[in-house]
Design brief:
single chain; 310 residues; mainly alpha; Ribonucleotide Reductase, subunit A; binds fe (ii) ion
Length: 310
């Protein structure tokens, strides 16, 4: 396996930015601290992992409790062998979703570099942010192509629209936060789950270690953008933004119930399973739990007007 075994809980220094925004340094100061932390934790994606040719057939690749239909009748109707097989496709879908979220993230960050929107220290940190996201894409892409033979394609379609000043940047950073916060919830559960294949644990650990810095920066930077722009918006623009964000979170969750993933795992009619799972109160409870931190941030700052329907 990899040269770095036994994923551990992050030390305080690995997540230096979890403090509330009331006590957090500005994103300019934070960027300086995070650049140092990124340089301290530098890693090489091409030598870090030892990729086995194949994963054992009967191994858990995703914590069963995180599998999209867990707790439903469709889940209990499967044999444990089928559940374990589904877990491979579930982790492949989760890694693909993360990778597909990182692609536009790197593009958007790249557009900001050396612009008047950023201080020098923020540009410097964004180079690390992009470097880390690029490595994550290599890591997730290698896993998916090697063990599933593919990366699941992106499903989201975004239509061109008019934006008020600052609204497009706000939407970009909120999208980043949704993919990173939901992903981190899964990473933290799986890096500690000893039932999983050690490679999967390790990938989740490595991702969480980098993401704890991204999340800290994203939360602070997005708060500052919100404080700058939202007071300049009309009530209509504000309501439009809040409605868009609620819909965006809901559609991000829908991606976890990928019909092709169910078909590939051979567990039944993919579209029927997706419909069943999206309507199930059991899976809704999971979505609400996994989104709590993210939604609380959006409610606290006013980016969401009310609890979104998940
Ligand atoms: Fe990432
Ligand atoms: Fe990230």
């Amino acid at each position: 396996m990899s040269q770095h075994v036994t994923p551990q809980s992050p030390t305080p220094s690995e997540s230096p930015t979890r403090a509330s925004s009331a006590t957090s340094p500005s994103s300019v100061t934070l960027a300086e601290q995070l650049t140092k932390a990124s340089r301290r934790d530098l890693w090489d994606v091409y030598s870090y992992f030892a990729w086995p040719d194949a994963l054992p057939e009967d191994t858990w690749c995703m914590s069963p409790e995180l599998c999209s239909i867990y707790g439903t009748e469709a889940w209990t109707a499967l044999s444990e062998t089928q559940q374990r097989r589904l877990s491979l496709y579930e982790i492949g879908n989760f890694f693909s979703l993360t990778l597909q979220g990182e692609r536009p993230l790197v593009a958007g960050m790249s557009d900001l570099l050396y612009s008047s929107k950023l201080a020098a220290s923020q540009t410097e940190y964004l180079h690390h942010f992009m470097d880390e996201e690029n490595k994550h894409m290599v890591m997730f892409g290698t896993f998916c192509r090697r063990y599933l033979g593919k990366v699941y394609p992106e499903k989201k379609i975004s239509l061109p629209r008019e934006y008020a000043k600052g609204e497009e940047d706000m939407a970009f950073f909120c999208k980043v936060m949704v993919v990173e916060e939901l992903g981190d919830y899964y990473n933290v559960v799986m890096m500690r789950d000893k039932r999983l294949h050690s490679l999967v644990q390790e990938i989740n650990f490595v991702h969480h270690r980098d993401e704890s810095r991204h999340l800290g920066f994203g939360r602070q930077f997005t708060t500052e953008l919100w404080q700058k722009w939202s007071p300049t918006w009309s009530p209509e623009v504000l309501a439009r933004f809040q409605a868009w964000l609620a819909a965006y979170i809901k559609s991000s969750w829908a991606d976890f119930y990928n019909p092709t993933m169910y078909k590939d795992a051979g567990v039944g009619d993919g579209y029927a399973l997706r419909q069943m799972a999206l309507a199930s109160p059991i899976t809704r409870e999971h979505r609400e739990k996994a989104s709590r931190k993210l939604v609380n941030y959006f409610l606290r700052t006013g980016m969401l007007a009310s609890q979104p329907e998940l």
